[in-house]
Amino acid sequence: MSTGKMKSIIFLTLLLAFPALAHHSVNAEYDTRKELKITGVIKEIDWINPHVSWLVDVKDSNGNVTTWKVSNVAPSEWRATGVTRKDAGKVGDTVTAEGWLARDIANRLYGKKMTFGDGHTIIVEGSYYRTDPNSN
Asked: Does residue 34 lie within any of the structural domains?
């Protein structure tokens, strides 16, 4: 085999392996023993890979606003289970997010349960999303 062909094979192998190496475990990034519930107003929604994310402005008892980043799985996983971008709320909506705190990043949460101002709820069970049938 020629050197050029070998280099091409190595390059393609590394190129294909890179996404798998870049992915991380939820348990590595979030502490599953530290659960939190926040309520705030959606400031921004990112429906992009690698994870759907919301920036949520949360007001404390003194009126101070802190922006939290709430993330969960990829948009493709949402679509595969029938949850659409429309289900993710919109800027200005109220949302309550329940989930796990990030290990090393302040004001970051893995959203296991998202309840939106209109009453619908999206629950994350592993990589399975569903709209809660008991919500409006």
From this structure: yes
* pTM for this model (two decimals): 0.74
Is 11 contained in some domain? no
How deeply is 58 buried, as exposed, middle or buried, from its count of CB atoms within 10 A (0-12, 13-18, 19+)?
Answer: middle
Mean pLDDT across 58-84 = 90
For residues 67 and 45, give the distance between their C-alpha atoms in angstroms, rounded to a whole number: 13
Q: What is the 3-state secondary structure (H, E, C) of 48-73?
A: CCCCEEEEEEEECCCCCEEEEEEECC
Mean pLDDT computed over every residue of the chain: 80
- Closest by CA to 35, choosing from 115, 124, 112, is 112
What is the C-alpha to C-alpha distance for residues 115 and 99, in angstroms, rounded to an integer? 12
Look up the CATH number of the domain holding residue 36: 2.40.50.140
Q: Residue 47: inside a domain, yes or no?
A: yes
Query: Is it true that the peptide bond before 133 is cis, omega within 30 degrees of 0?
Result: no
User: Which residues span the domain enclosing 91?
Assistant: 26-131
